[in-house]
MotA/TolQ/ExbB proton channel family protein (Floridaenema evergladense BLCC-F167), 215 residues
Amino acid sequence: MRAVEYFLAGGIVAWPLLGFSIVAIALVTERTWFWLKVHRRQNRIVREALKLYPLKPSTAIKLLKENGDLPIARIFLEALELDNPKPEEFRLALETAAQAEIPTLKRFNNAFETIVALAPLLGLLGTVLGLMTAFSSLRLGDVAGTQSTGVTGGISEALISTVMGLVVAIVTLIFANTFRSFYLRQLAMIQEYGGQLELLYRRHYEQGKEYYAST
């Protein structure tokens, strides 16, 4: 009940801030599940695929297909499923697939930025509205009388709405920056493992070995 009282004391801006907090929780949950899945399996799967590829290309492709929900697996498959491409075509396929995966890796970034930007502004709006309520309730000569209730309520609304806006923005910013660091790390990993796969393919191509997706 205490939390409900604080929420209601935040005034009209408490409702959009509540909506922002619910949306932020939903987005954070989805992104947390996504990155946990990636971090748990991706390194092991990709390293195993890189070991298998020089010996058994079809087995490596099968392994990647079985883990097609991983971004880097989809990137590798775009190149590996080409029939005996030239090294330049192989590299272009890797780069194009990597670019296509960026929206998935950066998903909801704009939503996080919007919440971080608007939540403090809504808190500031609540502060202004609360102060307006307080000053409109203030009457000279009656500061300690019946009008003091409106003044107190207006000040409470101003302070609580400010706190709510800052809390929503700060918590969302922490998670947004964490997911951004995961995204940057993922890009570096894609470049590293993609480069290793390209070198393996180029080496076998120069040796005159042909690798087909149906091998």
